[in-house]
Amino acid sequence: MRTGVLFTLLILSTQALAGCFGDDEVESEAVVKTPLDGLFSSTTWYHYPGGVNASNSSIGYANLTGNSTPYPAIGTYYGIGATTFEPTIGVTSTGGIHFSSYGGTGSGTMVYTSMDQGQTWNNMGPFNPIVDVGQVPSSNDPYIYVDKWTDRIFKFDMHALTAMFVEYSDDDGQSWSIPFSADGYYSPQDHQSIASMPDVDGIGFYDTIIVFCINTGSSAAGPQCSRSLDGGHVWDIQRPGYPTGTPQCSGLHGHVAGSNDGAVYRGNPSCDGPAVYRSLDGGYSWTEHTITTTVPMQQGWHSHEVAVATDEAGNLFASWISVDQMPWMAYSRDQGDTWSEPIMVAPPGVNETGFPTIFAGDEGRVVVGYIGEGDDLSGWGGYMSVMTDAFADNPLITTVAVNSPDDPLDITDDCGNVRCGGFGDFIDVEIDDEGRPWIALAHNTNGELGIVGTYVTGPALFGELRLLPEILPGGPATL
Prior knowledge:
Elements: H1 3-21, H2 24-28, E1 44-48, E2 52-53, E3 74-83, E4 89-91, E5 97-100, E6 111-114, E7 122-123, E8 144-146, E9 153-159, E10 163-169, E11 180-181, E12 190-198, E13 208-215, E14 224-228, E15 239-240, E16 256-258, E17 264-267, E18 275-279, E19 287-290, E20 307-310, E21 316-321, E22 327-332, E23 343-344, E24 350-360, E25 366-374, E26 380-387, E27 397-401, E28 428-431, E29 437-443, E30 449-457
Antiparallel strand pairs: 1-2, 1-27, 3-30, 4-5, 5-6, 6-7, 8-9, 9-10, 10-11, 12-13, 13-14, 14-15, 16-17, 17-18, 18-19, 20-21, 21-22, 22-23, 24-25, 25-26, 26-27, 28-29, 29-30
């Protein structure tokens, strides 16, 4: 049922009837309408940085125009039909949504794919050609990444903290390459992340340069990174993912992200605070860029996780959880050399969060994903906080929860600050070509099942700023 359409028709018919039967006395008591009328719900919030409700009359509504126009939004989720661990997601230009499952030792991880906006899912393997298990039969950390410039899907697995394997598909998982070894010389090889960027200098043999970074298990050694110039077949020897000679205080790091201008970034705390590391030569050398010294990283299991993203104009965004257990975001318009003042992006009523992730669309449009718990302490939900004009002086933030309060994804007291069920160490978020965000999550209360959250409808993050077409809602029935 198109609940949004029905709700709008109900409001319009009610207004029409009021006009027919009203009198002068009723008209004199009419409430002044605002751009936010009818938009709030138990799972949707319109607010400003710092959790300030956007219907605050002292702020007014004059800025809710242009790129800050509020749009109706409602969240939902779909089960993929399999378990997950550290869920990652990739979206191709064909509309394919690809999600990493967790099959465990012996069966191997698989890629589950939807070609109909999450309504149905299929196991696309890759399968061993002889026995019905994965080509890589065991993966401690399954990872999916889609090269948005070529649509190549990379499946990147780590085995027993030592062996690394990369497989790829160019046809939405219908066929797969053999596994290519991407081993390093450090042990352990852990917490791997992979990304791409256009080969703007023409130094390789493929349209993009592929870079991966791993954790060595040592803060002093820092993350190590490697690059492939031929689409993922052959990999350089791993090199430090930070400027040599610069002390490092964290070996773990967030997801790697590439930019249209050929830069590649990874989020990682410096010794001074949340930071972004930048490479302009395809991951061969790196510079360090501390974002802030006044909004530090959270203390706990995820104190390493700085999430990074770039929009179509090459602007850089970063998000992290601070010591207040809330999600913060800052941006840079000069490749990380200088940064905006950080803003807290969660809505009013959410008092603890974890597992930050971020993705950007057209210029200034960004989605920050995380899990959060409300004032009622009823359990953890999956959240997406969207800005359609992140560079505004007071950007409007539209936040949706993908699950309802009576359908928590986890009920662990401090899930946001510990390794928590299928969430593992991180989650993931992407935006499809239509402009619809998709967040990869786990439904831990139902057995660590993989779920993908999105809008039923909401503002588009690519193309014309508009209301996206409605899709059928999901929810617990899809589990």
